[in-house]
Design goal:
Strand content: under 5%
Order of helices and strands: HHH
Helix content: over 70%
Number of strands: 0
Radius of gyration: 17 Å
Structural class: mainly alpha
Length: about 100
């Protein structure tokens, strides 16, 4: 019974990650219908989707393998910090790397 609960819980969390990723990606898609200021192409959506999905799955991996503690918190903060820094670099090129197309 315990194994079924764990599998069910794990599947549910993966579904939540996929749903949140799709919801976040729907924001610019909907905005593109109402304004010309948002201009995303397929590559933008694929990049953002890969970044969000990989972040969600990395967080899931940490949550599954590290039950509690300071190390878990530090790793989760580092994952989120990496997400925000990469997203900012891709959006506006805050570091001026070729990664952002500058």
């Amino acid at each position: 019974m315990k194994i079924q609960e764990t599998l069910s819980s794990g599947k549910l969390r993966i579904i939540v990650i996929l749903t949140i990723t799709a919801t976040i990606l729907a924001i610019p898609l909907i905005a593109m219908q109402f304004t010309n200021e948002v201009k995303w192409n397929l590559t933008d959506f694929a990049t953002a989707g890969a970044l969000l999905l990989s972040t969600g799955l990395a967080i899931e991996l940490v949550i599954r393998n590290l039950k509690t503690g300071t190390l878990r918190t530090i790793i989760l903060v580092a994952i989120l910090l990496a997400l925000f820094l990469i997203w900012a670099e891709l959006a506006v090129g805050i570091f001026g790397t070729p990664f952002a197309g500058s």
